[in-house]
Each structure stands twice: as structure tokens, then as C-alpha cells.
Amino acid sequence: MEQTFIMIKPDGVQRGSFCEIISRFEKKGFSLKGLKLMTVDRPFAQKHYEDLLSKPFFGALIGYITSGPVIAMIWEGEGVVKTGRTIIGATNPAQSAPGTIRGDFAIVMGRNIIHGSDSVESAQKEIALWFPDGPINWQSNLHPWIYE
Ligand code: DAT
Ligand code: MG
Q: Which part of the chain is the Nucleoside diphosphate kinase-like domain (predicted)?
């Protein structure tokens, strides 16, 4: 089944919001297949955001992501990449709808609290980078109550 990479950024960890953020994915019915608190160094952060290397905000973005611990997660479920992005909200919190994570918890783009893969292909790439040992293999007993 489809998987996505979700990461609570250092501001989300510092602000004491991570349980509420994680619970939105759990309540939806998605399955947690990996979770760890970790700090990343600059080369690792640059690899994660390599597609944005030429952007003027790249330096600030790398400084932000390496500024404290992050919570890296793998979530699994039907359509989880696209639905995960919907749960997270628009990149700029000023344009994120209320009810989305960024809409509810963030104000500016440079502190937008959470990352989610933007396609199935980038999800696979990001999961391989952040979870070299792969996902945890288990299935929730709620599965038949969430899927028909
Ligand atoms: P997203 O995180 O919604 O996938 P992205 O991949 O385009 O957005 O960019 C990665 C992060 O970089 C984003 O979460 C916040 C920052 N960012 C993006 N565009 C920016 C901009 N125009 N100015 C400042 N920061 C920006
Ligand atoms: Mg992105």
C-alpha cells in the first residue's frame, strides 16, 4: 500500500504541538510504519531538499531544518501522499485553510511546522533517505473497520 514521508520540523517539536499533529494522521485512519526523533546535519538536509538547491531561500531552509530535533515518520494508507498534503495544507501558512496543520499552527513559510512528500515517487526517495532500514511491518487490527 502507498506510503508517505512526514516530518515534524524543529518548530513543531519545540512548540509542544507534535502529539496533536501526529494524532491527525492517526485519527484519519492511516497507519504509522516508522517514527523517530532525530537531528540532521547540513549535508543530510541538503540531500533531502536537493531539488530546491537553486532557490534563494535554500540557505535559510537548511538552517531551519538543522536547528533542532525533528520527528521523521512513515505513514501508510490509500492515497496517503495526496491526502497527507491536504491534511498539512498549503506551503505558505497564510494561504493554508483553517483545519489544516499549517493553517492551524503556523503563520510564515519559513516556520511552516511540517513536511510531507509531494508525490509517490518523492515519498519513496525520502523514505529511503530517512529510513534506510525500511518501514516497520505490521497491520492494525482496525484495518477491516477503515477499509471495505
Ligand atoms: P512544501 O514543503 O509545501 O512541499 P516546497 O517543497 O516547495 O514546499 O518547499 C520546501 C520548503 O521550503 C517549504 O515547506 C518552505 C520553504 N519554502 C518554499 N517556498 C518558499 C519561499 N518562496 N520562500 C521561503 N521559503 C520557502
Ligand atoms: Mg516539498
A: 1-138
Determine the atom of ligand 1 nearest the C-alpha atom of 88. 3
- The DSSP code sequence of the chain is --EEEEEE-HHHHHTT-HHHHHHHHHHHT-EEEEEEEE---HHHHHHHTGGGTTSTTHHHHHHHHTSS-EEEEEEESTTHHHHHHHHH--SSGGGSPBTBHHHHH--SGGG--EEE-SSHHHHHHHHHHH-TT-------TTHHHH--
Q: What does pTM read for this prediction?
A: 0.97
Question: In angstroms, rounded to a whole number, what is the distance separating the alpha carbons of residues 12 and 30?
Answer: 20
26 alpha carbon – ligand 2 mean position (Å): 22
Q: Is 115 a catalytic residue?
A: yes
pLDDT tens, 83-134? 999 999 999 999 999 999 999 999 999 999 999 999 999 999 999 999 999 9
